[in-house]
């Protein structure tokens, strides 16, 4: 790995989706780093799914949350952007205002990538927010029983063991493959650090890496690739999987051992604290397999990364970001 030159502002690319990505971005945004968030576009549930079905727009929900996490706009303005209608109107019910704005701008700018760049300026975003692709993608999964299902929400609700996933354009009649725009690939290749996760392994993280040129760039970049392992297993996705299994799945999907470092939480989640009814997608705490990680030549950083909140288990943004900065410091010898 190349050393980060003196006075160089480190470039950190964070790849993922779901609720985990904004947590890390909030912690990074006040550090002296150049942040790029690469956000999944394969979601088909909730408000995002409805908008996608109406106007075939890239699902905006994950993008909306990332924009808010990196924005310098006043809190009230961000609250309005995040506001979700609770009226009984057959169209507006359940939609977040920000989703509607992103969908409108995507139509105005003839694509979500340019729309997000325009919105980033309006929202005073610190860094860059790049949709993983400029078109909506369909997530496909093959299960160990041979069943094949398409659609992120359908895959999640199947509650069956996933063998592999891949993505296809939602309008693939012309036979073209999913690909990321040049800016995404350039960011990955120029990065000093690539952060993957935390997030749902098969439905938030791998959809990005299964875009051919994204996966290739992550394998070829000189940056350190760091995987933030989930604290809890996810029902129907990663049941009974260890942290080494997570890395093994990632490596198998890209055909090589590309994960350099993993962050794993070692603090035990109190069994009587978790509300499994409220967080019904969670199952049990991820089991550690340090020998399995070493066999894959992965550097292990273990610490108390646990944040208990609202009867759920989450990553402590401050602790995670501190370790990410330590890795940049180790690469440069000069960063604080």
List the helices and strands and how they pair.
Blueprint: E1 11-16, H1 20-28, E2 34-39, H2 46-55, H3 61-69, H4 75-82, H5 97-108, H6 112-122, E3 128-131, E4 137-143, E5 148-150, H7 152-158, E6 162-169, H8 182-190, E7 193-196, H9 201-209, H10 212-220, E8 224-228, E9 232-234, H11 243-254, E10 261-265, E11 282-285, H12 290-295, E12 299-303, E13 306-309, E14 312-315, H13 317-332
Parallel strand pairs: 1-2, 1-7, 2-3, 7-8, 8-10, 10-12
Antiparallel strand pairs: 4-5, 4-6, 9-11, 13-14
What does this structure look like?
The structure is a single chain. The protein has 336 residues and is of the alpha/beta class. The protein has one domain (11-44, 127-332): 3-Layer(aba) Sandwich (Rossmann fold). It is 38% helix and 20% strand. It has 13 helices and 14 strands. β4 and β5 (148-150) form a beta hairpin. Residues 45-56 have low confidence and may be disordered. It holds the Pfam family CofD. It is found in: Cytoplasm. InterPro entries: CofD (IPR002882), CofD-like_dom_sf (IPR038136), Gluconeogen_factor (IPR010119). Required for morphogenesis under gluconeogenic growth conditions.
